[in-house]
Design brief:
With about 190 residues, the chain is of the alpha+beta class. The protein has two domains: about 80 residues; about 90 residues, Ribosomal protein S6/Translation elongation factor EF1B (Alpha-Beta Plaits). It has three helices and five strands; from the N terminus they run H-H-E-E-E-H-E-E.
């Protein structure tokens, strides 16, 4: 028994043809086109995400020169700040510099005694140094002025100025004080 469409009336043949055509289109859509469209939509989303990443990267790349410039400026500033607040204590260098300032101010350092232990704070250490100097009153003031202009931070405190019993022409007073210098702690 063979099925033939020729025995059907013309409108039956057209209906059968339309039904087979719709079934073919539906089968094509579900078996081939629909998975293809899903894959294309998925790839489109992935493409858009990649393009967004590219735009972000291009924006960062355009600012790279600016970032490098800022890093250079910050490194220069850090080096300047390391002179003001060094990372290591160097008592020998500090003594030489204070001695030079004292000599320039016509003073004599009688006593230079660093504290046995630095005082540790959160980000820095304080190193107190007891100093005793002899000289004229004006020269002591000049010395303190020069210390204030020193590139490294030195705090002068606990000042005790006394007249000398035996005064000389350039040495009329003795000044005892604590010069505190600071060292940056290495928190690496």
């Amino acid at each position: 028994m063979a099925v033939t469409l020729t025995k059907l009336p013309w409108y039956g043949q057209i209906g059968a043809f339309l039904a087979l055509s719709v079934a073919g289109v539906v089968a094509f859509f579900y078996l081939y086109a629909s998975p293809m469209q899903e894959e294309m939509a998925q790839r489109q989303r992935k493409l858009e995400a990649l393009q967004a990443d590219i735009r972000k990267s291009q924006a960062i790349a355009q600012r790279l020169h600016q970032f490098r410039s800022e890093v250079g400026e910050l490194e220069t500033r850090l080096e300047t700040l390391k002179n003001v607040l060094p990372e290591e204590k160097d008592m020998g260098d500090l003594l030489r510099r204070l001695h030079t300032l004292a000599v320039q101010s016509n003073l004599t350092i009688r006593n230079f005694k660093p504290a046995p232990q630095p005082i540790t704070r959160q980000l820095h250490s304080e190193i107190p140094i007891n100093l005793e100097i002899d000289g004229a009153y004006h020269n002591v003031g000049l010395f303190f002025d020069r210390v204030s202009k020193f590139p490294r931070i030195i705090h002068i405190g606990n000042i005790d100025i006394k007249g000398k019993d035996k005064q000389e022409s350039n040495s009329t007073i003795t000044a005892d004080f604590v010069a505190t210098t600071f060292v940056l702690l290495d928190n690496k």
